[in-house]
């Protein structure tokens, strides 16, 4: 769950709401997540990139033959103590490039999978993988993003969804 949200948007056509927006979320791990939406774009882009120090994953929802690509690329940090002071700054980080793997994934209809999981949860008398709490977490982020947009991108701390659930 993000700890805070900042949103910036624009309404270049006078529609009364942001048509182009950027959302930045600070995560509890110290990482950040960034999202860009543009309702005016003539092309659809549905790509998620997760970058790490050892690998980068790219999910492209519009490329059915290669939805997931795993790049063995990252950075290597040199041990600062082993470097001379004059070279430390220049060689602290080195970039590593390796192979790309695109695993074969079974094509599935997203809505059919969600409905199958929901039916299985009912039949097995268990909580669904994404139930009301997941929806509440999403709404918490969206409400904070709306407040941030109204305040010209001011960072909005998030109230934990567990606190909201307890307040009901």
From TrEMBL:
Q: Which domain of life is it from?
A: Bacteria
Name of the molecule in the record: Gfo/Idh/MocA-like oxidoreductase C-terminal domain-containing protein
List the source organism: Frankia nepalensis
């Amino acid at each position: 769950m993000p700890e805070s949200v900042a949103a910036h948007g624009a309404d270049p056509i006078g529609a009364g709401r942001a048509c182009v927006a950027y959302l930045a979320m600070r995560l509890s791990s110290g990482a950040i997540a960034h999202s860009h939406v543009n309702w005016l774009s003539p092309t659809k882009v549905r790509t998620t990139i997760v970058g790490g120090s050892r690998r980068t994953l790219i999910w492209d929802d519009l490329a059915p033959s290669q939805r997931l690509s795993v790049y063995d690329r990252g950075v290597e940090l040199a041990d600062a103590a082993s470097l001379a002071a004059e070279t430390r700054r220049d060689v602290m980080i080195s970039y590593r490039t390796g192979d790309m793997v695109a695993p074969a994934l079974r094509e599935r209809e997203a809505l059919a999978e969600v409905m199958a999981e929901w039916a299985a949860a009912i039949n097995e008398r268990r909580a669904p993988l994404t139930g009301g709490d997941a929806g509440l977490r999403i709404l918490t982020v969206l409400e904070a993003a709306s407040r941030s947009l109204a305040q010209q991108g001011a960072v909005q701390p998030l109230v934990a969804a567990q606190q909201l659930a307890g307040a009901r």
